[in-house]
Design brief:
With 195 residues, the protein is of the alpha+beta class. The chain has 2 helices and 10 strands, in the order ααββββββββββ. Strands 5-2-1-7 form a 4-stranded antiparallel sheet, with helices on one face.
Length: 195
């Protein structure tokens, strides 16, 4: 009968232990650092782009909502910038304030004075024989990484048939993009990229 003998040498024990050398760890760390330095600015740009698109979509949909509500309810609907859109009784910003990035409010303007009067003013704006009060329809909180400024008027007002009070242009931009959104007197929206 043969006897089997198991021999362990220092060499065979050493090869059974696995791991990384210091040079391998340094190389992997350098590669990771280079890839991260390339990806982080692109990711930051992606976030700004996403916020810009979301803010622009919110603003455009608010204009569409204002016009559609004016048409469907046969009342005057106004949209104005507001520095306190989440207040219990929000108010339009000063008459000279044209910046919408702090938020805005949309309301039925029952007495057509382009001011949100709340329930304190009652009138028959739709001429159906019943009195209505100015009603807050929608608010928007401040937007991040986007500037929206009207270049013509502080308030956008749609009458009972959906026409705008005047030709209104809005400059919408951030560090990366710039657009002009124009609402003509018929209430139609044009959206053009600024080169």
């Amino acid at each position: 009968m043969k006897k089997f003998q198991c021999v362990f040498s220092a060499q065979s024990t050493r090869s059974a232990i696995s791991g990384f050398t210091l040079i391998e760890l340094i190389i992997v760390t350098l590669v990771f650092g280079v890839l991260t330095s390339i990806a982080v600015p692109e990711f930051s740009s992606l976030i700004k782009s996403s916020r810009f698109n979301r803010g622009t979509d919110n603003f455009r949909s608010a204009i569409d909502f204002s016009r559609t509500t004016a048409l469907s309810t046969s009342t005057t609907v106004a949209m104005c910038p507001s520095e306190n859109p989440n207040a219990p009784v929000p108010a339009c910003s000063a008459a000279t304030e044209k910046n919408y990035e702090d938020g805005w409010i949309i309301y039925k303007d029952c007495n057509s004075n382009s001011t949100f009067d709340g329930a304190s003013i009652i009138c028959d704006d739709d001429h159906d024989g019943t009195d209505e009060s100015s009603e807050l329809l929608r608010t928007q909180i401040p937007l991040n990484d986007i500037v929206i400024e009207s270049s013509t008027t502080t308030r956008l007002v749609f009458d009972q048939v959906g026409r705008a009070n005047s030709l209104v242009s809005f400059n919408i931009d951030n560090d990366i993009f710039a657009y002009t959104l124009t609402v003509n007197t018929l209430g139609r929206i044009a959206f053009v990229e600024v080169p």
